[in-house]
Amino acid sequence: MKKYIICLSVAMIFTSLSGCKKFLDVESITALSGNKFWSTQADVESFTNNLYAQLWAKFSSAPFISSTGELRSGEILPSVDGNYNSNNTTSRVVYRSFGINDLKTVLVSGRAWTNLNFASITRWLEFYQVIQGSNIMYDKVDRGIPGMSDIDTKRYKAEAVFIRCFTYFYMVRLFGDVAYYTDAYHSDPIGRENFVSVLNKCIAELAASRNDLPWKYEDAAFNGFRANKGAAIDLLMNMNMWNAGFDQANKQNYYATTQLLGQEIVTSNAYSLVPLSRLPTVMEGGTEEGLFAFKQGVDFGTPNKNAFPGEILVAYPQKGNTAANGTYSNAYFRSSYINKIYNLDEDDRLASWFVNPTANDGIFSMKKFAGSLSSTGFPDWAIVMFRYADAVLLRAEAAAELGMDQEAVDMLNLVRDRAGATLFEIGSAENLKDAIFRERQREFIGEGYSFFDLVRTRKITDGNWTSNPLTLAQFNEGAWTWPIDASALTRNPFMTLNSYWL
Predict the structure, then answer these.
(1) Where are the domains of the chain?
(2) Which of 41, 310, 415, 501 is deepest in the core (most CB within 10 A)?
(3) Are both 1-62+117-213+472-502 and 74-102+217-469 of the same fold?
(4) Lowest mean pLDDT among 188-192, 269-273, 326-330
(5) Rounded CA separation 420/366 (Å)
(6) Is residue 379 helix, strand or coil?
(7) What is the pLDDT of residues 195-226, one digit of tens each?
(8) Per-position DSSP letters for 241-280, written without gaps between them
């Protein structure tokens, strides 16, 4: 299986996306093959760009972010308005299955929603192609590229580590235990490793190399779309906080590491929160708040519009050239959820980000994802993975867990002040830790954070925090994971699938 992955990896790595911004422009395989390849820095740059292109292809193969990080929280329902396109209603009704964690129904082929390609989420081969490519890149650059400076050599190696660790992190959140390796041209079959161990290895290697990444690139087109020090720090914070939820014996160490990382990124002044009115531009990527995103607007080729997190939650005029083809959103948040997380009198996000927020039907829409409409009638979205507000609130969460209440409140209030919300005060009737979690629900609504936050804090088992609670037994059995496609077993006697879904 690993030899099969290597062959596919090499083929996929050289598959470029055309017409995109210049940092995704790559040479063809014929120009990169033979003696020329790995002989210049331009070769390394092209290989690096194609690793991002592979990840983009995976995340755009389905409604990936909304399906994995939002729909499973149980707070989103499909629109079934009488004036809504009947074919779309039929296909989108599957969102109800996400809401009750019925992924087996989601994955049934031959149904109206098959074209949404949810099965792609269960296949991890493409992720391993990226990991294999990252391992090869690190090895080749480490051996030396003629004419490349020491600074650039370290930066490309750090970028390979970031891409590898990011990919492992996303796989862990989807599947739990995964097969872990970092050697180039790996060919021996191996089994799955405990995911806490995998993330600890990723934490160690990324911590050792992240200072070789820049805070900002000289070429502004790279900022927010290529690995940088802020993105590496936020990834480290996320990996530490994920492990804190599952490795209880060492959780204080994870919190302490996260707090220090958060302090570093905040005091760097390299990033900032944009004014609330500009938040839709953050969804397009490349702003001073963006840390890492995949950018491929619909004017740059023909990406799958369903892949963008906001697509299911917006209606005309936030998407669609005319009211006729975008009158209703495909889904909406439960009004009970909106009322629970937002104080209607003290949070500017409600008016700034929503149209008919408590409608409980398809006239609901999220201006948060409005963006600049392209010629096809869809906003020029990016797939945003990390933004600065995430680092700020993770620092707040870690500080609160460490009893550093004033620091936690200061970080919480950075986000609340931007939102025009009443500032939190120590001694408030609301528990500080709960207030920080609720702030994450408000701030990142629709962006794909919700389910993962519920899982890592185990609030997914508490009906006070979700309309779709798992029992503790279900949680421990792995009900929070995704099924793994049976192709993972091919020619690998050591591989197993997620038993909960068998």
Answers:
(1) 1-62+117-213+472-502, 74-102+217-469
(2) 310
(3) yes
(4) 326-330
(5) 18
(6) strand
(7) 999 999 999 999 999 999 999 999 888 999 99
(8) HHHHHH-GGGHHHHHHHHHHHHHHHHHHTS--PPPGGGHH
Residue 106 · residue 159 · CB < 8 Å: no
DSSP assignment of 136-189 equals HHHHHHHH--TT--HHHHHHHHHHHHHHHHHHHHHHHHHHSSB----STT--S-
Over range 80-104, report the average pLDDT. Answer: 73
The runs of H, that is alpha helices, within 269-364 are 279-282, 335-341, 348-353
Selection from 424, 421, 290, 255 nearest residue 350 by Cα: 421
Query: Distance of CA 290 to CAs 224, 352, 365, Å?
Result: 5, 19, 23
C-alpha dist (Å) from residue 333 to 95, 358, 370, 430: 12, 8, 17, 24
* CA distance linking residue 419 with residue 336, whole number of Å: 21
Question: Which of 407, 399, 391, 408 lies closest to 443 in space, CA to CA?
Answer: 391
Q: How far apart are the first and last CA of the chain?
A: 22
At 291, phi and psi to the nearest 5? -105, -45
Question: Domain 74-102+217-469's class?
Answer: mainly alpha
Instruction: Identify the bridge partners of residue 178 per DSSP, sorted by sequence position.
Output: 193
Count of other CB atoms within 10 angstroms of residue 250 = 14
| Tokens of residue 213, six digits | 């990444």
Phi, psi of 332 (to 5 degrees): -150, 160
**Cα torsion 244, 248, 252, 257: sign:** negative
Tokens 């701030």 label which residue? 443
Confidence of residue 33 (pLDDT cuts 50, 70, 90): very low
Torsion of CA 226, 164, 16, 32, to 10 degrees: 100
Question: Are β-strands 382-387 and 365-366 bridged in parallel, bridged antiparallel, or unpaired?
Answer: unpaired
H or E stretch covering 205? helix 195-209
Provide the sign of the torsion angle of the four alpha carbons 315, 384, 286, 393, taken in this order: positive
Q: What is the CATH number of domain 1-62+117-213+472-502?
A: 1.25.40.890
Q: Where are the alpha helices (DSSP H) in 342-449?
A: 348-353, 388-401, 405-418, 432-443
Provide the pLDDT for residue 382. 85
Verdict on whether the full-model pTM lies above 0.85: yes
Q: Are strands 76-78 and 290-295 parallel, antiparallel or unpaired?
A: unpaired
Tokens 């890592």 locate to 456
List the one residue out of 221, 242, 233, 309 whose CA is nearest residue 271: 233
Per the DSSP assignment, residues forming a β-bridge with 77 are 332
Does residue 33 sit in helix, strand or coil?
coil
Closest-CA residue to 176 (of 483, 489, 491)? 483
